[in-house]
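Onboarding guide, step 5: your first structure request.
Type a short instruction followed by the sequence, for example:

Predict the 3D structure of this protein.
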Amino acid sequence: MKFFRVILFFILAFSCSAELFSQTKGKSSGKTDKKKTESRADSADTDKKSSGKSYKELLKKATTVKGIFDVHRVDNDFYFEIPLRWMQRDFLLVNKISSVPLSINEAGINKGMNTENKVIRFSLNKRAGTVWVKTIVPQVESPAADAITQSVRDNFTGSVIESFKIEAYNTDSSAVVVKVNRVFDGTDKSFNDVFNDIGLGTSVKTSLSAIENIKAFPQNLVVKSLLSTTVTEGSNSLPVSVKVTTNVLLLPEIPMVPRFGDKRIGFFTTPRWYFSDRQQQMESRELITRWRLEPKPEDRERYKRGELVEPIKPIIFFIDPATPRQWVGAIKSGINDWQKAFEQAGFKNAIQAKEVRDTADFDADDVRYSVVTYAASPKSNAMGPAVIDPRSGEILESDVIWWHNVMTSLKYWMRIQTGAIDSAARARNLSETLMANAIRFVSSHEIGHTLGLKHNMGASAAFPVDSLRSPSFTARMGGTAPSIMDYARFNYVAQPEDNVRNINPQIGVYDKYAIEWGYRWLDMNDPHQELPVLQNWLRKHENDPLYKYGEQQESQNIVDPRSQSEDLGDNSVKASYYGLQNLRRIVPQISTIAASEGDDYYEAGKLLLAAIQQWQMYAGHVTANIGGFYLENAVKGDGKGAWMPVPVQRQEEAFNFLRKEVFSMPEWLVEPQLLSKFLPTQDSPVGPFEYTPYNVRRNAQYDVIYKLFADERLMRMTEAEAFWGKEHVFTATELFGRMHAEAFRPTIKGRSLGIYDRMFQQNFVDALLVSSGKLLEKLSAKSLHDECHYMQVDEGFGGEHVLRNINVSLMSRTSEAAMLKRAELLKIFRLLERKQKSGDEVTRAHYQDLMLRIRRGLNIQ
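The system replies with structure tokens like these:
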């Protein structure tokens, strides 16, 4: 069912926690001013008379827990006693999933995931006898004395999302009591709309839902609820019950001093708008997300002198007690490895990994704790979201969601990428030592996200490809890239004779630099004052590739081939040749690696598919060079150009790689002796799928050809030709000419075609017909405007964007790309008209079929 393939969009700017209602007592924070209390008591007389019950009568049977709000439980009713001093203060409402049933576990929804966060304010409405709850977006700032500030207040007001009746005032009228069941038990969606947030689109069944417990602390409340629904698809109905934890967290009265982001370094950000009377236009900034690391007041002069000091509040991650013991050490090491980066920023003991020793007061969903949450699930992944104070970008709490099956991906990566150079990766069962090393790097990568760092997919391009074959270089520089935030998994470039041992990603030069840039404390109270210092730090390294940041790009439309996922080195063509050599060594050993005597070939089939996917990945890395641009976030004075085409020689090398290694799948990858025993196998919700060799070849080849002749790529090549001149670039015309010669060489020579020759021509023609058909549809449309296809990555977890949004495809229906595709189809048609009677019978039938398809596709009479 579609239900089992729910797609989640994670909101990483916020992520949170929770805990059970207990009898644990805590002290209420703050003191009440006597004069203010008396004033409130006088003004509340009318409200007390109309509330129905006195404070003592309402709560005479209550069980009470003290905290930021005192929480009273009377039978199944829950009451918050909200002190008036907290009215108009900012609270962060954070919702997190605490437990799930099998049905949505399989869809990738698991414990620890954040569903929705919002900033709220409580306000007293005395006349109505209610407490209103407003949600605000704290994105705007203006000086209090400026005239425009009144306009800011009027144009950026909060919206009321909830109203609670005041049931009573406390004995000194310093607090109001409100009943809160309906916002936590599913009756209302104002505080928590979990089933819409996770994509089910259903409503809560209130008769099967309830608040389970609440716990109170000096800075937050934690509410645990069981919410149930029914998902219906066709004639099938499925009950779903989810435990949800909601935190109500008091935000700091004085926000952290924010730090402005810069596109030349990769931090997650939250937007901020500044208005003032002196402006001629609004100032728009991005605040980086980071923890509040500050030296203790008594240590600040030492810090300024360059001495290492401990921060006021260190970053502490707790390891989920549910984590298998053999992996706890590796996960902790991955966290502690970041300490060197914080030392470069001037802090010692700034980040710590701890195990939960006393579980009596521990709940992973409580925002007091940052936790590596271990999820028992078939999902193979890990992620590192965070709870953010959007007023300043301060990270209040972070979590790593660690799915158990992430080890499956690690196992396949190690076997396929390093099996040729590391005999331990070829073992039927990988050693705990080998797996622990891999878990350690995944831990470091995900913790990097929780520290505010985005992916740096351009880091790996800083290392020369041949240097990855050097034992001394890889030992000195650390692994595969200068940043662990790249997806530079394992060293597939090194060859067996190189004896390279340092083949795992590690925290590198860029990571330490980024942490220092984001976390070094500056004794300033205005982020504008920091700008000259921050920019000077960037200028020091602006021409050093080790410090370069390259954003993650949309996988289906890579613009800058230097910033790709899972590539290595500064030349993806050369690196891919090395990768293929190792892949060719490992494929014949798959049955030995993945199956013991008496085993079936299920695991071998999955490993073979992983090898084919690795080959496809190399093809994608190389293809990105053709029609690619090198992009820079240039600033005045750095002497850099914002964009330039990939050099002609590199693009020609890329096409030759595709011609030799990709257009026809290598025979060693689909070797008959291997495939006679097992087929490439992929798991699916309905069981394993096995793929036959011809099908694998056809689909893989079509995928490469279709992407190679994508409209965006051809239009980038047109842009390059128009701007730099055709003598300086690899043109789209040249690409079509070379492809035509490659696909139709046997036809031009009048030969009979084999089955794979026919497949090649069919795929080429079909790729052109499909994309041309879409363009022809636009020609007949009544709309005056074409779609704008911007080169940007989808909003997934992290919300990462490509370097810049460069639009190349406006009015694509009248573009050179459309003309060239139709011209190539007509060229093929004329060739087939001349050659339609050459070759054997099946070749002639093939030509007739292609001519019919082209005639129909181009509407040739």
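Each response can be followed by summary notes, for example: Residues 220 and 599 are 54 Å apart (CA to CA).
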